[in-house]
TrEMBL record, chain A:
<dbReference type="InterPro" id="IPR012337">
    <property type="entry name" value="RNaseH-like_sf"/>
</dbReference>
<dbReference type="GO" id="GO:0005737">
    <property type="term" value="C:cytoplasm"/>
</dbReference>
<keyword id="KW-0217">Developmental protein</keyword>
<keyword id="KW-0694">RNA-binding</keyword>
<feature type="domain" description="Piwi">
    <location>
        <begin position="538"/>
        <end position="830"/>
    </location>
</feature>
<dbReference type="InterPro" id="IPR003100">
    <property type="entry name" value="PAZ_dom"/>
</dbReference>
<dbReference type="GO" id="GO:0051321">
    <property type="term" value="P:meiotic cell cycle"/>
</dbReference>
<dbReference type="InterPro" id="IPR036085">
    <property type="entry name" value="PAZ_dom_sf"/>
</dbReference>
<feature type="domain" description="PAZ">
    <location>
        <begin position="264"/>
        <end position="376"/>
    </location>
</feature>
UniProtKB/TrEMBL annotation, chain B:
<keyword id="KW-0808">Transferase</keyword>
<dbReference type="InterPro" id="IPR029063">
    <property type="entry name" value="SAM-dependent_MTases_sf"/>
</dbReference>
<keyword id="KW-0694">RNA-binding</keyword>
<keyword id="KW-0949">S-adenosyl-L-methionine</keyword>
<keyword id="KW-0460">Magnesium</keyword>
<keyword id="KW-0943">RNA-mediated gene silencing</keyword>
<dbReference type="GO" id="GO:0090486">
    <property type="term" value="F:small RNA 2'-O-methyltransferase activity"/>
</dbReference>
<keyword id="KW-0007">Acetylation</keyword>
<dbReference type="GO" id="GO:0030422">
    <property type="term" value="P:siRNA processing"/>
</dbReference>
Length: 844, 396
């Protein structure tokens, strides 16, 4: 199996995210300044100017900025206080204790540490934020104090003598400005405002270590890793934050890489030119380029490509702000000493955001392709196996390598004179790395039809289940194989292996009808249309290439117009010598699932439990659409699934169709089990930063109401758990003086968790190379009142049940099914799959 | 008589006073004037005395000829903070490094203090500076700038008070100005300074007067001083202050900011740019090669385009006939099995590669270091897969 297959199978594949621009989309917090002294030798800077509104001084930073750090708003949601059974203790008990090293560092403050918040006004009033800051910073009274100031609100660690302080300062124009500094609040170190100030301080410290802020993270341009064959540069760096964990303030640092592309838009266009014919060149160009973010090399700004103007050439003139006309060629020569080499290139058009919300026509910027670097990785790049491999090889760090980077950062922070001085003036002490104790949950047995196996490695039990019968499978009698003329021989070969693999696992595969088609997407599609009818159990397509339109048209037709399970295989896969049997085994299992079969199970102590997975992602084609997938178990053994998917038009990833889904799933359960499930546990994946509150206020009630409406007397008990695959926390285990990934089943439910949440970390996937990324679980609603220990173990069990991979995966199986379903719909089908398929895992 | 005419003049201009407006604004015109000077004389080392918020330096950093930029100001701390970003290398500077090194240093200091770090400059600009000096400092100024720094060229701009009557207010243009000279006063001072320190001086300015007041001259008057050379015309080559090495180091200025830009003179940047360019070129040649091969397979009649066998137009690269002929003569790209090879001798003919390295042996050494996996065993060709998409794909 190729590396990519493995990645996918384990459910680590992510839906491609939109181009990751190195634009300073940050964070208003970074725009506010923190400084300790009047010394400005550092590179403190204001990356963006934000309008200063006169502002309510009581809510600094958060409300005045449009896009505040959204993870801070999540932290204000307290869910644990409503959950009586975990109010005192949310830790589990089973398993073997294991000592773990984290990427957290202690931050110590003096006991009586306080932050004083002041409001500053100017007479005469000054519009310019820069000037406001400059005047305040350079005033004698304040020059030696630790301070953070954004133009309106000032934070000091030392209280000024008076409640209201009046200062006056001279501007360089000779006028006098009076500044009135009024104390508004005294904040204890535990306040969320203080946490934000600490984050500002650390941003400043990282800049002092010659790091470069891109987005929220900090990167070192001085130590780039170059991948010239893919025109990429990688900058190593860190994602950092200061936050309050269980009982103390901790600094988190995780190694991060920024991928920069060394390719201009003009080069991209020229490459396209060679791939396409002249007639569709402009069209293809627009299709591939519009919406991408580019970086101009001369002024370091990022722009979105909104249009391409093919009628404008660099030799044309434009009007400058002062009204004079100049050609693009002359302008760039004059301003930036740049000589444009291609005088026939078109110009890129970008709509500029207007700062004020008035109705003035949006201004546009014309950009020269030759001077614009592409940013982020396109879908095409992320699907390039070699490119991703090259990137992974450079960025994947072993636990030890990661630890060395962290140690170096900690060392730099403690040794750098400026950084240390900054910390000292604020009264902060950067402490040692945090170690904690986790637990390794007992391993699970895998239940097959006539055999219980205790896998040698929970990461992959494919060897253990060789020659074992799967739980149940429908016999495959009436089915089709569609292949190209050239692939006839390999298809026959493959079919032989497939039938052999099927029979050894108890899945009877009869000889199919083989249809041959010409090698082109239209011919394949019409063959499917002609030969597939509702009596057919399954269609297998041996695709000549991985061109997207082969796959998409077939999947689209067979998932909604003529609902028949389908299995696509690339000819290339079947050409792999020596791999045929393992490929056939895997495909046989997929096919069995698509017919509604069950492969294996784990022991579930709860007798009447329904588990649900929900995922949401944006549609690839229509950008305003969100695809919501819902997968629920419909038998007590948790081996059969009900899957639904809907496209909804909303701006956020919040689902509003959950009532329909949940009611549908409960009906299904009722039909199969003649009753309602006693307990329902919902795992919600695909939640972004800052959506926690919406989830609690909007999604949980939908689920609750369908559960209560389902039965008049006793309704099922509901729990909702938010699942996050991405978290900045890492755990490593010390082993004979080296560091290793913790064993599978490691749970962390203390110290690195949040005091206001019922949360835990679980490591359920193996990382053969690199550092494992723990999955974070946050129980936001819980009627079931299961002991934390049982909740953790149940979650771990569910990570064993993903039928596309005979091993543990990083998230509970229903979540991964929901993810796989939304991915298929968002990428290929773009419409709701037929309900007739809802009872099988047709999307595997 | 004189008084009358003056009154008359003033009366006649009163209604027009408000129309005196410069486009682009005068301060920009002054900066563009300096940019033009830089374009014309290509100085390597440029210092701006009284650089304020370093706007001029921000503009000059784009000039490829400039390798050292220095700004000096007394009140730097007030205005530096928001320009330090603009003076630091950006992502773009890392991705597309300059040809030549560039370092930028800002000092806090006075234009009338000596600092040996300002010796040996090709150009020193003093834009709207001298009018801020009191008489004592003004007296010291020529000795420091012309006598001690002694750069190849000095550009001094100052307001022209002859122009002031055209403005509504009759005071100085800025409250900090200690004086504002008319054209005669400035030219007199400048000529004396030039004579004393062996410079030539010519006068010009920006902000042309309105047609009806031609005699007042430019709003900003500018003096361009050039050091007299034994061999006129080669001022930039003959180092103006070569003998200063023996003088003791004097460090009166305080460094407040330094930046060093990535450039092709630094080996790892050269290596990266070269490898990227070579691989782009090889990829383009490969595409063309495959395209021609397919054409031949399908035995379609050859179009005219086929004849330039393997020469692909890269963006911004229009090969001259001589270059095409040169490339044509060099060893051709070839394929063996699934591998495709482009000889280094052919690659060196492409201007984008040739611009970076001059000869095949340097190219070989650098590529062997940068992309060892992409070299054939003899290190004579770059190799890539003939069909880059021919790799194992998984099934869906």
């Amino acid at each position: 199996m190729s590396g990519r297959a493995r990645v996918r199978a384990r459910g680590r594949a992510r839906s491609p995210s939109p181009a990751d621009a190195p634009s300073p989309t940050s964070v208003d917090i970074s725009a506010s300044e923190a400084s300790s002294t009047g010394d400005f030798a550092g590179t403190s800077r204001i990356s963006q100017t934000h309008g200063v509104s006169p502002g309510d001084a009581r809510c600094p930073f958060i409300q005045r900025s449009g896009k505040s750090r959204r993870d801070f708003t999540d932290l204000d949601v307290c869910t644990r206080e409503k959950l009586a059974h975990v109010r005192d203790c949310k830790t589990g008990s089973s398993g073997v204790p294991v000592k773990l090293v984290t990427n957290l560092f202690n931050l110590d403050l003096p006991q009586d540490w306080q932050l004083y918040q002041y409001h500053v006004t100017y007479v005469p009033d000054l519009e310019s934020r820069r000037l406001r800051i400059a005047l305040l910073y350079n005033h004698r009274e304040l020059s030696n104090k630790a301070k953070a100031f954004d133009g309106v609100i000032l934070f000091l660690t030392q209280k000024l003598e008076e409640k209201v302080t009046e200062l006056s300062s001279e501007t360089h124009r000779g006028g006098t400005v009076k500044m009135t500094i009024t104390l508004t609040r005294e904040l204890p170190a535990s306040s969320s405002v203080c946490i934000q100030v600490f984050n500002i301080i650390f941003k400043k410290i990282l800049k002092k270590l010659a790091m470069y802020q891109i987005g929220r993270n900090f990167y070192k341009p001085s130590e780039p890793v170059e991948i010239p064959q893919h025109k990429l540069s990688l900058w190593p760096g860190f994602a950092i934050s200061v936050s309050r964990f269980e009982n103390r303030l901790l600094f988190t640092a995780d190694v991060s890489y920024k991928i920069l592309r060394n390719e201009t838009v003009l080069e991209f266009m020229t490459d396209l030119r060679q791939e396409t014919t002249m007639s569709c060149f402009t069209q293809t160009c627009e299709k591939r380029l519009l919406g991408l973010i580019v970086l101009t090399r001369y002024n370091n700004k990022t722009y979105r490509i909104d249009d391409i103007d093919w009628s404008v050439k660099p030799t044309h003139t434009f009007q400058k702000q002062d009204g004079t006309e100049i050609t693009y060629v002359d302008y760039y020569k004059q301003q930036y000493d740049i000589t444009l080499s291609d005088l026939n290139q078109p110009v890129l058009v970008s709509l500029l955001k207007t700062k004020r919300n008035d109705n003035t026509e949006p201004r546009v910027a014309h950009l020269i392709p030759e001077l614009c670097f592409l940013t982020g990785l396109t879908c095409q790049a992320t699907s390039d196996f070699r490119l991703m491999k090259a990137v992974a090889e450079e960025t994947r760090l072993s636990p030890l390598g990661r630890q060395q980077r962290l140690a170096r950062l900690a060392d730099d922070i403690q040794r750098n004179k400026d950084a240390r001085f900054e910390l000292e003036t604020w009264g902060l002490h950067f402490g040692c790395q945090v170690s904690l104790t986790g637990r390794v949950l007992p391993s699970e047995k895998i239940l097959m039809q006539d055999h219980v196996c205790q896998p040698a490695s929970a990461a992959d039990w494919s060897k253990d289940m060789r020659n074992c019968k799967i739980l149940s499978a429908q016999s495959l009698n009436k089915w089709l194989i569609l292949c190209s003329n050239r692939a006839e021989y390999v298809t026959e070969n493959f079919l032989h292996c497939l039938r052999r693999a099927g029979s050894s696992m108890g899945f009877n595969v009869d000889y199919p009808k083989i249809i041959k088609a010409q090698e082109d997407p239209a011919a394949f599609f019409s063959a499917v249309q002609k030969h597939v009818n509702p009596d057919v159990q399954l269609v297998m397509c041996i695709l000549p290439s991985n061109q997207k339109n082969y796959y998409d048209t077939i999947k689209n037709y067979l998932n909604s117009f003529c609902p028949v399970p389908s299995q696509c295989v690339l000819t290339r896969t079947l050409n792999k010598q020596g791999m045929m049997m393992s490929v056939a085994t895997k495909i046989a299992m997929q096919m069995a699932c698509k017919l509604g079969g069950e492969l294996w199970a784990v022991e579930i102590p709860l007798k009447s439990l329904m588990v649900v997975g929900i995922d949401a992602c944006k549609d690839e084609v229509s950008k305003g659409m969100v695809v919501v997938g819902f997968v629920a178990s419909i038998n007590p053994g948790i081996t059969r699934w009900f899957s639904r998917c809907i496209l909804q038009r909303t701006a956020t990833d919040v689902a509003d169709c959950l009532k329909v889904f949940m009611t549908g799933a409960l009906n299904k359960w009722y039909k199969h089990n003649h009753g309602l499930p006693a307990r329902i546990i919902v795992y919600r994946n695909g939640v972004g930063d800052g959506q926690l509150k919406t989830l609690i206020e909007y999604e949980v009630p939908q689920l609750l109401s369908s559960v209560t409406e389902a039965s008049a007397n006793t309704s099922s008990k509901l729990s909702v758990i938010v699942v996050r695959k991405k978290c900045t926390l890492r755990f490593c285990m010390e082993m004979s003086r080296s560091l290793q990934n913790p064993p599978l089943g490691t749970v962390v439910d203390s110290e690195a968790t949040r005091p206001d949440w019922y949360d835990f970390y679980l490591i359920s996937q193996a990382a053969c190379r690199g550092t494992v990324n723990p999955t974070y679980y946050n129980v936001i609603y819980d009627d079931n009142g299961l002991k934390p220990d049982h909740m953790q173990r149940l979650t771990f069990k569910l990570c064993h049940l993903y039928y596309n991979w005979p091993g543990l995966i990083s998230i509970p199986a229903p979540c991964q099914y929901a993810h796989k379903l939304t991915f298929l719909v968002a990428q290929s089908i773009h419409k709701e799959p037929s309900l007739e398929l809802a009872n099988s895992l047709f999307y595997l | 008589m004189e008084k009358n005419s003056m009154e008359e003049f003033q009366r006649s201009t009163v209604p027009r006073k408000n129309v005196i407006e410069f486009r682009p604004p005068l301060y920009k015109q002054r900066y563009f004037f300096v940019k033009d000077i830089v374009n014309q004389y290509k100085p390597k080392k440029v210092a701006d005395l009284g650089c304020g918020n370093a706007t001029l330096l921000c503009m000059l950093k784009f000039h490829s000829c400039v390798q050292e930029l220095v700004g000096v100001d007394l009140l730097m701390d007030r205005l530096l903070d928001w320009n330090s970003d603009k003076l630091s290398p950006s992502i773009g500077d890392h991705l597309g490094p300059r040809d030549l090194d560039l370092s930028i240093v800002l000092y806090r200091g006075s234009a009338v203090e000596k600092d040996s770090r300002l010796l040996g400059f090709d150009l020193i600009t003093c834009i709207e500076l001298i009018e801020h000096l009191d008489s004592e400092d003004l007296a010291k100024f020529p000795e420091v700038v012309f006598g001690y720094f002694s750069p190849g060229m000095v550009v001094i701009s100052t307001p022209n008070s002859d122009f002031n009557p055209l403005f509504p207010a009759s005071t100085f243009r800025n409250s900090d100005h200690k004086f504002e000279w008319n054209q005669t006063q400035f030219q007199h001072w400048a000529s004396n300074v030039a004579k004393l320190y062996s410079y030539t001086v010519e006068f010009t300015g920006v902000g042309a007067p309105p047609p009806w007041a031609k005699h007042v001259g430019y709003c900003t008057q500018i003096g361009i001083f050039k050091k007299k050379q034994p061999d006129p015309g080669s001022w930039i080559l003959a180092k103006p202050t070569g003998s200063r090495v023996s003088e003791p180091e004097e460090h009166a200025y305080q460094v407040v900011f330094t930046a060093s830009f990535p450039s092709l003179q630094q080996k790892h940047f050269l290596l990266f740019v070269l490898c990227t360019e070579v691989l782009k070129e090889v990829e383009a040649i490969r595409q063309k090669y495959v395209w021609i091969m397919k054409r031949k397979e399908s035995s379609e009649p050859e179009s005219e385009e086929d004849t330039d066998s393997g020469l692909v137009r890269r963006p911004g690269l229009f090969l001259t006939d001589a270059q095409v002929a040169q490339i044509e003569k060099s060893p051709k790209p070839y394929s063996v099995g699934k591998r495709f090879y482009v000889p280094l001798k052919r690659l060196i003919g492409y201007p984008k590669v040739n611009r970076l390295v001059a000869d095949v042996s340097t190219l070989r050494t650098l590529l062997a270091e940068g992309i060892p996996m992409r070299m054939n065993r003899a290190h004579t060709s770059v190799q890539i897969d003939l069909d880059p998409y021919d790799y194992p794909h998984d099934y869906r």
